Amino acid sequence: MDSQWTDNAPIYRQLRDRVVAMILEGVLKEGDPLPSVRNVAAEFRINPLTVLKAYQALADEQLVEKRRGRGMFVNAGARETLLKDERGRFLRDEWPRTRATIDRLGFTVDELMSTGKQK
């Protein structure tokens, strides 16, 4: 995880988003333990309560579960749930702006598809 924080959102929210990204990217898989609150707090020099708040947000979303005395673990189906939510959010919030830009600049589908292939 990157240790740089921005002023755009509370640190607990940024930490939550980083764990979500790790689940989406497959770094954390179903059943994997999250790093301990103490380790994350020490590594990033943040208050353990901040880490706990981020983890609680993930638990509230049913992406992770608490196992008493053992820590937090990624729930089964967490990645699929996140993909569904993120895809919906992208199509609702980001795609209309992206599509408007594509139309305004006059790109063709072929131009857009070939752009990703250039290196």
What does this molecule look like?
The chain has 119 residues and is mostly helical. The chain has two domains: 11-77, Orthogonal Bundle (Arc Repressor Mutant, subunit A), CATH 1.10.10; 79-115, no CATH class. It is 59% helix and 7% strand. It contains five helices and two strands; from the N terminus they run αααββαα. The chain has helices spanning 11-24, 37-44, 48-60, 78-105, 109-115, and strands at 64-67, 71-74. The protein has a two-stranded antiparallel ribbon with strand order 1-2. β1 and β2 form a beta hairpin. The chain is elongated.
Set out the fold topology.
Blueprint: H1 11-24, H2 37-44, H3 48-60, E1 64-67, E2 71-74, H4 78-105, H5 109-115
Antiparallel strand pairs: 1-2
Helix pairs in contact: 1-3, 2-3
